[in-house]
């Protein structure tokens, strides 16, 4: 029974020394001196705020993208024991002792280090030589801009890591396709492709470019599979469903999970939740939730309410009135109704309270049982403090003469009758009998006499003059079509009125409610609202000192000063390796020219590169040459496969560069040099592809091959020389003198900071 113990247990493992060495070198270049400088470096001042909010569980909205990248940075802070207490107010501020600098910068540095072996493996999976793969990895290793970006609490290195992981996973999956379909390894790499794509998109929406590229490549490959007569219809269907599951369904589910974790972590109210709807705010702990807790759900006749404009732009505001009237004549000479002003006020105030009145009854209290207001009901809105009725008429609004003035009616005993009936239209209703609900219902108020819709003016400069206390204008929009958010209102604070007497009612308006009704939003409702805010929220784009255009990136005519030591000449700049950037541009140009040349000649039936549409693979078993169907071997391309390899490499590397670079020409946002780094990484991978192609197909004699090899060695030596030359401004040490800094200004457009002596 224990006979197996007679023989020793032997475990064998294959170790790729190249991969191990590249990984170690990547870790050294990215992790060395990671805590230096112990000060806020460039965009750490931006991302650090979100890390602190995560630590304190305070809700925030970042319009730059999804939350996964922020959560990874926060994970570093959590592992380091960060309590979130640091004031992220300026670049260069010294970190206090409670800030775990090494831990906060660790994950971006690890991601940057792992990009080196990923580059190697991608070239191997594209079936290029190990020399070419090693060259690609070393170029990534010695790229100064990638090193700089990965050594701080920034997201680009994490984004590039997931992008490269997605590409590598798909290539491994595709190379297993021919002989190991639906095997364990096949499923692993296919599923990892979807996971990596979702993570890339979850870090920054820039990851969507590579995700779309891989979907296009997968679609093209599946299109070729459809023409394979050896595959049955059932097999094709299984392949299609597997790809749909891994490349579409799983990324969608994971993307939703990022937001689920984000919302689960950030359950406390904070400064950013003011741009969210009242329902969203009420779901957070503290803030509005403390005010609205225990409010009645259904609005009834006699309810006392505050009405918040749903749009929340240019700022959140509530329907408001006060005793002041519109001036008899405006500055431009137009006349007004001289009625009581109605505005949209951006602060909570007792004058924001209104009473929902039944036009057929005089009472201003809720009956027992309450009579709820439903969609389509006619109501009057009575201002709680002044008891005047919300009114509009055919008088031009003060700032929007094309719209009607909205006022609270004052009876001047003149021929201007009150027009104070409003029809309640619940926009997000499920049926025409829906009840008007606190916080949840989005309502339009349509004026019965004129069909004008109550609206908050949203154009720039819609604040009233001094006579209106700079509050926002409210108008009656004529002939309105659709449901613009400026026309929608929701009840935020609500109580059932009990006092008929005005003095008692004023006291009641200041007192909290006691009824307890929960208004928790579902996750999908929160997700949809937060996603919409992320996509539509626009910060004012201001010209930054180090902003640049997409055209500046190719030739690296710009740089970014990340950090400057307060006393010495030590500084850190985002600057690339000049030789690598120039070589990448040359490789892209050579690839495009050669591809165009080959395509033209192929139209003339001249094949400079072997066609090789069907990959060949030769295996040897026991001295016999056998086909791949006889053995499950790793795919090895033959020389006849050269054209397919050339096209595939261009699709992955050249396509990756194009999809990550060209969209920036269409973007209206402030751009920086680091936006180019994902595209640059793909362009770097194209360099060894072109070099190997030139060596294999253009250098045919031994002499030419020797000369070509010597040129590559000299070229690579120059890459290493530039890396060493600029390493002081890559790592921030050692400090350089003014003369040494001047020597680094290889281009007049570079902003190298030199202190005046």
From TrEMBL:
Presence of the UniProt keyword Transmembrane in the record: yes
Membrane-spanning intervals of the chain: 68-88, 100-122, 154-174, 186-203, 208-226, 246-267, 578-600, 643-666, 672-691, 703-723
A molecular function (GO) term: dolichyl-phosphate-mannose-protein mannosyltransferase activity
PROSITE patterns, per database record: MIR
Pathway(s) per entry: Protein modification; protein glycosylation
Keyword tags: Endoplasmic reticulum, Glycosyltransferase, Membrane, Repeat, Transferase, Transmembrane, Transmembrane helix
UniProt membrane topology term: Multi-pass membrane protein
Enzyme class (EC, first level): transferase
InterPro entries reported in the protein's UniProt record: ArnT-like_N (IPR003342), MIR_dom_sf (IPR036300), MIR_motif (IPR016093), PMT-like (IPR027005), PMT_4TMC (IPR032421)
E.C. no: 2.4.1.109
Keyword Isomerase: no
Domain of life: Eukaryota
One term under GO cellular component: endoplasmic reticulum membrane
Catalytic reactions of this protein: a di-trans,poly-cis-dolichyl beta-D-mannosyl phosphate + L-seryl-[protein] = 3-O-(alpha-D-mannosyl)-L-seryl-[protein] + a di-trans,poly-cis-dolichyl phosphate + H(+); a di-trans,poly-cis-dolichyl beta-D-mannosyl phosphate + L-threonyl-[protein] = 3-O-(alpha-D-mannosyl)-L-threonyl-[protein] + a di-trans,poly-cis-dolichyl phosphate + H(+)
Compartments reported by the entry: Endoplasmic reticulum membrane
Domain MIR positions: 296-359, 370-427
Family: Belongs to the glycosyltransferase 39 family.
Name of the protein described by the UniProt record: Protein O-mannosyl-transferase 1
Naturally occurring in which organism (per UniProt): Pachyramphus minor
Gene giving rise to this polypeptide: Pomt1
